[in-house]
Amino acid sequence: MDIRVNMALVRVHAVIHPDANPDVSNERVVDLLWEAKSLGLSDADAGHSQPPPMFVGEAELTHWWEDGQGLAASLEEMRLCSSCHDGTGHPCPIHG
Ligand SMILES: [Zn+2]
Fold it and tell me: Would you say which domain of life the source belongs to (predicted)?
């Protein structure tokens, strides 16, 4: 699981190099959180409803993965919503 390994590397690097630029580290963490969200979305499409076991110990990764699952559910709901597909090209008030 590349996301989890890379998150561990970022954490270790921050400990080993406490004087390193924190913005670079934070930017990398944000990238990994977005990757976790994207994985949650694709896992939902693949029918996986449990977060990757290796996310244990990184609550933020799990949280963002769950966000991805929620996004997948919302997209599926919109896909099935007839009001979102009324030909106007705009989502209905509920999903807009
Ligand atoms: Zn709708």
Answer: Bacteria
